[in-house]
Design brief:
Blueprint lengths: L2 H4 L3 H15 L4 H10 L18 H13 L6 H10 L5 H8 L5 E3 L6 E3 L2 E10 L6 E5 L5 E5 L4 E4 L9 E9 L3 E3 L1 H36 L1 E2 L2 E2 L4 H26 L4 H30 L10 H14 L2 H15 L1
Helix pairs in contact: 2-3, 2-4, 4-7, 5-6, 5-7, 7-8, 7-9, 7-10, 8-9, 9-10, 9-11
């Protein structure tokens, strides 16, 4: 659906998403799904035949930015991607995801084996697997399989993220409900990079806002912290980094590019977020001092979320791949 033809502006989704995310703060997981579905946010990427909006990534970005800024405890990125990837393949499941009646997630680490039509293996970095109905797991052949979460064993994992905690899923002879080929999985993973960058941007922007409020009100030696030049310079550098993330995401979602260039734009958008996001969160922690590590100050939760998202995207390997591509082109 073209933005002009639809009469929609991606910015219009931001206000709706902010209200929905704020409302979810006092709700449990399943109620959060229903609340997000009520505002149509779970169907941004899903086809209209399944009750979705059939829009592109540029419309999903402000929704994910709001989720990152509001510290939303729900696997929204995974739900949006699943609903989009399963379009035309599992319409009933897509409709259930869009309506908030089913919950899905994606394993971002490890790979399972497909043998004799059954899936076995150990998958890591599975956001909120214990509350999911369906999990998309990567396969060793490059494709992916959709399996019922109850078909595997969910175990606790060491994770920094306290908002959308990651878990381990162990499968032994699980029957897949659907298989995606390597091409479909590649598209999903490329789209995930942009949406992950949007989550990081929202979290980083909130860190800057919280830090700015703190230095304007906190006084030391008879004057507010913001009066010190080093503090102002630190905030300015982080604001510049935030705008770098925003610009990279904008290019990846609004500029018409050839297939290879489009993938590179998605990769660089995520790398920009993975570079500046942690720095912004850590800078905000520095301005709060020891207070930043207390539960009363939210900054450290955003830093944990950012670091988890950074790990899910496999930053070291991605940096090497992008660098190799630039060297080859030169």
């Amino acid at each position: 659906m073209d933005m002009i033809e639809s009469g929609l502006d991606p910015a219009e989704f931001a206000a709706t998403a902010e209200r929905a995310v704020a409302a979810c703060a006092t709700l449990e997981s399943r109620a959060r799904a229903a609340r997000l579905a009520e505002d149509g946010l779970l169907g941004v990427l899903a086809g209209e035949e399944a009750g979705g909006l059939g829009l592109g990534l540029r419309f999903a970005v402000p929704v994910l930015v709001a989720a990152g800024a509001g510290d939303l405890g729900f696997p929204l990125l995974e739900t949006l991607l699943l609903a989009g990837a399963l379009e035309g393949r599992k319409p009933e499941l897509v409709a259930a995801l869009v309506a908030g009646e089913a919950r899905g997630t994606i394993a971002w680490s490890g790979a399972a084996r497909l043998e004799g039509g059954r899936v076995s293996g150990t998958l890591g970095r599975v956001p909120m697997a214990g509350e999911a109905d369906w999990v998309l797991v990567p396969l060793t052949d490059g494709g992916a399989a959709l399996v019922a979460a109850e078909a595997g064993k969910v175990e606790k994992a060491i994770t920094l993220d306290v908002t959308v905690p990651e878990q381990v899923l162990r499968l032994e002879g699980a029957e897949p409900a659907l298989l995606l080929d390597a091409g479909a999985r590649s598209v999903l993973e490329a789209d995930a990079l942009v949406l992950r960058a949007a989550l990081i941007m929202g979290a980083a922007e909130t860190c800057i806002t919280l830090a700015a409020e703190h230095v304007f009100t906190r006084r030391q030696f008879g004057k507010p912290l913001v009066a010190y030049q080093a503090v102002r310079h630190l905030l300015a550098r982080h604001k510049l980094g935030l705008e770098g993330i925003r610009g990279a995401i904008t290019r990846a979602t609004t500029v018409e590019l050839e297939e290879g260039a489009a993938l590179l734009a998605r990769q660089t958008a995520f790398l920009a977020a993975a570079t500046h996001g942690p720095s912004i969160a850590e800078g905000a922690l520095q301005l709060f001092g020891g207070m930043g590590f207390t539960w009363e100050v939210a900054v450290h939760r955003y830093m944990r979320r950012i670091r988890a998202l950074e790990a899910q995207g496999g930053v070291p390997a991605l940096r090497e791949a992008v660098a190799a591509r630039f060297i080859e082109a030169a």
